[in-house]
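Can you please make up a whole protein chain along with its backbone structure tokens because I've never seen that pairing?
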Amino acid sequence: MEISQQLQELEEKVSLGLKEAYRKMAEFKKRNNSPLIVSRNGEVVSIPANEILPTTSAKNP
């Protein structure tokens, strides 16, 4: 197996892990009615629990 193929597989596993972590965090925040604190354009923003999306649409550049 080539190194580039190994790196691609690792990247896919990391990406899946991050998506799963986000999904679990979103469920936890909603269950506990806790806001999600994020940074948008350098500004700290609080997202109410009822507005947290179950998945993220963020894409790697």
Observations:
- The beta strands are 36-40, 43-47.
- Residues 36 and 42 are 16 Å apart (CA to CA).
- The mean pLDDT is 90.
